[in-house]
């Protein structure tokens, strides 16, 4: 008879492992794990006083006079205490057998919670409590409540943090002169106050993080981030890049053949980029411009400077539709001027791919436009001088680095990153402190304003009538849907269903469909028909989010607008308003709306300014989500708030600049000590 294997004991997770899960590995990690709120256990009031202040959180102390388990309306433990001034019931819905013994009659209990007047008189439901002896001393400081993880109780955290505070090296990393100049508290008393605030502390200033102790901690965190990013920028500048000094015949001829004049803002950013390209170290510039502000032509003129200087340029975009838009537009400008532009994407046939590889490697292709396919090992450039990355936040750090590493013999190509999601100033100063930023803050003339309306989807028939009327007037229409196939969980109208419904409702119109699962050639046939005004309505998923330019399209309907993020709604809306006709964007939503969805739709109705939209998006989502894939592993700010602490960002930036540019051993030691304390070996995450 086979012997059954012995039962293995349940694996217990050590406190160290639980702390490590929270990222708390060192004594300094623990010391900088600051409370999220506090409980005031510094005073006890009588039950009579607590009853007078019903609804407030208060702490009382009394003797257990009765202890019973009730079964109606559900099983619960009822503990009655008295202190001579009155009686109070403590009610526990979830309890252990040990608690029944612990709270036996005659026990003295200190309980803290919100006192309510229930059906059976005054009571506290699930109060915090402890069994005490008569005359037990009260704490002299507020009790910290820390961010915690599974199975990690507050007492365990408090004990671990308290012990770490005894062991840690409290040497202040900031010199006394700097602390005095900026009127900053010393670090040790500031951090100790945040862990153990005295009774008389301004509790409001603690909770809204405006207390001087918080200011010190936030400044230190911001300074570490600024030092790290600026040091990474200096390291990058120490690398060699080919100086692209020539603005020659191609640059002049390209400007001459453009069917429009550059705006003042385009001229300004082009001057900034051109100056960077002349340097012998790599340009690292972010070009921001609202939807339709003309970033593509600026990038083409930057590429022309590289080509005039004898080098190749590459432009990488995140989707095939966007890459192809760039390719068609730029090739139409450059090829008549004798510049060979190569096209490379994953969907090309093997023979076409090989032909592209050969042209790139031989240098015959002076400009290469494509998708992620440019990152493949097999792609070898003859002499890459400039890499341009569009919608750079869609690419991970590793991908952007791969393109940067395709320069010759250790020379790093200049890099221009483009984004139609404007980055608010404080965000640019913190998370993008290592980049130069250029902004196109002017739209080309002749653009029409876009009116935005939010409409309940129950009024879909009215919207279809509006689509029909617009088509009869010779206008074209986008109808955007969030999913391709039916999903029962989300119950969203799908692109295929919507296409069928609109084709049936509008039999006299040509209704097309484009989505991400179609083959590139099929997509292109549909897009070409829409661009040529052979199609009235284009039903699409978000593949049309960026880059599609059809000036005659002046009405956009966005289905289930409540499902989209703000920047995505703004990008989609930017597909209309590109011609002279008044344009309209209709946001179809499904009731009831959540609070965040309401805020988003309200923002879209109120403004078309990309920077204002970005600012509100940052408010709604916070920096972590807003930044997306800029970099995995980047230490987000834990304590500083970009909205309220912009003044501190300014100070930290100035101090970082001073510390890094003053060539003294003392200041160099300050930088090393400060980074070691705040980033503790995580600095490599910030170097890309």
TrEMBL record:
Domain of life: Bacteria
Keyword ATP-binding among record annotations: yes
InterPro entries membership: ATP-dep_DNA_helicase_RecG, DEAD/DEAH_box_helicase_dom, Helicase_ATP-bd, Helicase_C-like, NA-bd_OB-fold, P-loop_NTPase, RecG/Mfd, RecG_dom3_C
Entry's Gene Ontology molecular function annotations: 3'-5' DNA helicase activity; ATP binding; DNA binding; hydrolase activity
Keyword line: ATP-binding, DNA damage, DNA recombination, DNA repair, DNA-binding, Helicase, Hydrolase, Isomerase, Nucleotide-binding
Positions of the Helicase ATP-binding domain: 276-440
Reaction equations catalysed: ATP + H2O = ADP + phosphate + H(+); Couples ATP hydrolysis with the unwinding of duplex DNA by translocating in the 3'-5' direction
UniProt domain Helicase C-terminal: residue ranges: 463-619
Swiss-Prot/TrEMBL GO biological process terms: DNA recombination; DNA repair
Gene3D superfamilies recorded: P-loop containing nucleotide triphosphate hydrolases (3.40.50.300)
Top class in the EC scheme: isomerase
EC number(s) from the headed UniProt entry: 5.6.2.4
Coiled coil: none
Short name of any one Pfam family annotated for the protein: RecG_dom3_C
Assigned protein family: Belongs to the helicase family. RecG subfamily.
Function, as annotated: Plays a critical role in recombination and DNA repair. Helps process Holliday junction intermediates to mature products by catalyzing branch migration. Has replication fork regression activity, unwinds stalled or blocked replication forks to make a HJ that can be resolved. Has a DNA unwinding activity characteristic of a DNA helicase with 3'-5' polarity.
Name this polypeptide is given: ATP-dependent DNA helicase RecG
């Amino acid at each position: 008879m086979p012997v059954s294997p012995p039962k293995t004991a349940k694996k217990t997770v050590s406190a160290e492992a639980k702390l490590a899960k929270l990222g708390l590995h060192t004594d300094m990690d623990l010391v900088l794990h600051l409370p999220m709120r506090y409980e005031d256990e510094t005073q006890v009031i009588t039950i009579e006083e607590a009853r007078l202040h019903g609804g407030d959180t208060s702490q009382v102390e009394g003797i257990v006079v009765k202890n019973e388990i009730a079964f109606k309306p559900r099983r619960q433990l009822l503990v009655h205490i008295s202190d001579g001034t009155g009686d109070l019931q403590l009610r526990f819905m979830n309890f252990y057998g040990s608690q029944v013994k612990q709270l036996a009659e005659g026990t003295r209990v200190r309980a803290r919670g919100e006192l309510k007047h229930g059906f059976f008189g005054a009571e506290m439901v699930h109060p915090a409590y402890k069994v005490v002896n008569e005359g037990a001393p009260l704490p002299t400081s507020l009790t910290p409540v820390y961010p915690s993880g599974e199975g990690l109780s507050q007492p365990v955290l408090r004990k671990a943090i308290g012990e770490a505070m005894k062991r840690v090296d409290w040497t202040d990393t900031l010199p006394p002169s700097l602390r005095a100049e900026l009127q900053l508290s010393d670090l040790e008393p500031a951090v100790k106050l945040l862990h153990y605030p005295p009774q008389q502390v301004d509790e409001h200033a603690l909770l809204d993080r405006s207390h001087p102790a918080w200011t010190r901690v936030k400044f230190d965190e911001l300074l570490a981030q600024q030092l790290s990013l600026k040091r990474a920028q200096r390291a990058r500048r120490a690398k060699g890049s080919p100086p692209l000094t020539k603005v020659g015949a191609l640059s002049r001829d390209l400007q001459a053949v453009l069917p429009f004049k550059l705006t003042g803002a385009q001229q300004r950013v082009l001057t900034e980029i051109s100056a960077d390209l002349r340097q012998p170290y790599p340009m690292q510039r972010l070009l921001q411009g609202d939807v339709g502000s003309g970033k593509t032509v600026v990038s083409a003129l930057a590429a022309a400077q590289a080509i005039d200087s004898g080098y190749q340029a590459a432009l990488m975009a995140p989707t095939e539709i966007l890459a192809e838009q760039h390719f068609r537009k730029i090739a139409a400008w450059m090829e008549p001027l004798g510049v060979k532009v190569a096209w490379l994407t994953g969907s090309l046939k093997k023979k076409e791919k090989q032909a592209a590889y050969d042209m790139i490697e031989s240098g015959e292709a002076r400009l290469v436009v494509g998708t992620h396919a440019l990152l493949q090992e097999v792609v070898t450039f003859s002499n890459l001088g400039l890499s341009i990355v569009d919608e750079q936040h869609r690419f991970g750090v590793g991908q952007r680095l791969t393109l940067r590493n395709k320069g010759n013999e250790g020379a790093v190509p200049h890099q221009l990153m483009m984004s139609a999601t404007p980055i608010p100033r404080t965000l640019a100063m913190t998370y993008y402190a290592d980049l130069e930023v250029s902004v196109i803050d002017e739209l080309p003339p002749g653009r029409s304003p876009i009116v935005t309306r939010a409409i309940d989807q129950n009024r879909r028939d009215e919207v279809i009538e509006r689509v029909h009327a617009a088509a009869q007037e010779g206008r074209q229409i986008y109808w955007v849907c969030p999913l391709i196939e039916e999903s029962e969980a989300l119950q969203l109208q799908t692109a295929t269903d919507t296409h069928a419904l609109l084709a049936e409702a509008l039999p006299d119109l040509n209704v097309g469909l484009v989505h991400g699962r179609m083959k590139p050639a099929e997509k292109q046939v549909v897009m070409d028909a829409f661009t040529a005004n052979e199609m009235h309505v284009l039903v699409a998923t978000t593949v049309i989010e960026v880059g599609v330019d059809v000036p005659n399209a002046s009405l956009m309907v966005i289905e289930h607008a409540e499902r989209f993020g703000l920047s995505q709604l703004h990008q989609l809306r930017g597909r209309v308003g590109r011609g002279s006709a008044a344009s309209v964007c209709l946001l179809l939503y499904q009731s009831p709306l959540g609070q965040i969805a309401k805020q988003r739709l309200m923002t879209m109705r109120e403004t078309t300014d990309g920077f204002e939209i970005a600012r509100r998006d940052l408010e709604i989502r916070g920096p972590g989500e807003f930044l997306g894939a800029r970099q995995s592993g980047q230490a987000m700010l834990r304590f500083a708030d970009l909205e309220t602490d912009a003044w501190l960002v300014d100070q930290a930036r100035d101090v970082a600049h001073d510390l890094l540019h003053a060539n003294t051993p003392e200041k160099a030691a300050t930088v090393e000590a400060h980074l070691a304390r705040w980033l503790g070996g995580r600095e490599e995450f910030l170097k890309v």
